[in-house]
Amino acid sequence: MAGKENQSPHPLVPGPANGTYVRTGDDEAGRGGSRELRRQKRKKYLLYFVAFVIFQTGVILIFTMTIMKVRTPRFRVRSATFDAFNVSRQPPNNRTFNISMNAQVGVKNANFGRYKYQGTTMTFLYRGSQVGEGVIQKSSVGWRSTKKFNVAVQLTSDNFTSDSQLAADLNANILRLTSQAELKGKVALTFIFNKKKSAKMNCTMDVFLTTEQLANISCD
Ligand SMILES: *[C@@H]1O[C@H](CO)[C@@H](O)[C@H](O)[C@H]1NC(C)=O
Ligand SMILES: *[C@@H]1O[C@H](CO)[C@@H](O)[C@H](O)[C@H]1NC(C)=O
Ligand SMILES: *[C@@H]1O[C@H](CO)[C@@H](O)[C@H](O)[C@H]1NC(C)=O
Ligand SMILES: *[C@@H]1O[C@H](CO)[C@@H](O)[C@H](O)[C@H]1NC(C)=O
Ligand SMILES: *[C@@H]1O[C@H](CO)[C@@H](O)[C@H](O)[C@H]1NC(C)=O
Ligand SMILES: *[C@@H]1O[C@H](CO)[C@@H](O)[C@H](O)[C@H]1NC(C)=O
Fold it and tell me: Where is there biased composition of kind Basic and acidic residues (predicted)?
């Protein structure tokens, strides 16, 4: 095998540098008069060609299954800090919260191409009622990377009417929140090939009122 490989590149390599070399090489084979040798050579090249086609098909298959595969970006709340923490526990009917939160949000793009998304709003729900919202600016995430940014959210109990439920949660010192949002955008896999892809956020998390911390974040 090694000997055959050495034979074939030799007449080919000087070819482009000096055209006559290729011709003399061919002539030599012809002068040798061995049609059998030429046939074997042709057979060998055909084999190389078939092997090359198989190899190329494999490369294209792997390429489409990995690099060109479009994955849904992961969009979630990673952590949060709090600026103002105002919780009123006065009974009756004057239990409120008014909390300034800085949520750190992450968009993880596992694609081999940039993900560009439009601006959207992220809403925070407490027991099914909207208690706050944050603005997400139009931007983009590089290929196979995670973009992290902060979103300011004012959480207020204005929309929440069940005093008894709020009283129970304030006594337990835990507010369980849900955050929802949808990013709409495109994955640019090559210069010409764009694929629309939206990423939904659906996270639940606990605001611990005594420690003023966010914990137990879990996202779909
Ligand atoms: C907290 O809220 C109560 C009533 O909701 C208000 O009277 C008080 O001034 C607020 N405190 C701060 C520090 O915002
Ligand atoms: C609730 O309590 C605050 C003081 O923390 C008071 O200023 C406000 O008037 C009360 N509101 C109601 C509806 O009782
Ligand atoms: C909540 O607090 C912010 C400042 O931290 C204040 O501007 C806003 O009026 C408060 N909202 C309510 C309903 O108390
Ligand atoms: C209350 O709910 C409405 C609609 O559901 C929403 O537009 C508004 O922003 C909410 N208020 C707060 C303080 O989240
Ligand atoms: C969000 O996830 C929870 C479970 O984690 C599920 O019960 C709920 O239906 C989901 N909501 C949406 C809008 O997907
Ligand atoms: C939430 O977090 C607290 C402390 O961080 C932990 O004790 C508790 O088990 C967690 N709950 C859930 C449902 O994960």
Answer: 24-36
User: Ligand 6 site: residues with CB under 6 angstroms?
Assistant: 206, 215-216
SS3 14: helix
Distance from Cα 208 to the centre of ligand 6, integer Å: 10
Question: Rounded to the nearest whole angstrom, what is the distance from the C-alpha of residue 101 to the centroid of ligand 4?
Answer: 16
How do the domains of the chain map onto residue ranges? 20-68, 74-219
- Please name the fold of domain 74-219: Immunoglobulin-like (2.60.40)
Give the pLDDT band (50/70/90) at residue 208.
very high
Answer yes or no: are the C-beta atoms of 5 and 51 closer than 8 Å. Answer: no
Distance 89 CA to ligand 1 centre (A): 11
Q: What is the dihedral of CA 106, 109, 113, 118, to 10 degrees?
A: -50
| pLDDT computed for residue 146 by the predictor | 96
Q: Name residues whose C-beta falls within 8 Å of residue 118's C-beta, 6 or more positions apart in sequence.
A: 138, 183, 184, 185
**Full-model pTM:** 0.75
The whole-angstrom separation of Cα 74 and Cα 146 is 9
Ligand 3 pocket member 98 (CB < 6 A):
yes
Residues 6+ apart with CB under 8 A from 30: 38
At residue 32, the pLDDT reads: 55
Q: 139 CA distance to ligand 4 centroid (A)?
A: 25
CA-based nearest residue to 120, from 219, 214, 199, 205: 199
Tell whether the model's pLDDT for residue 135 goes beyond 70: yes
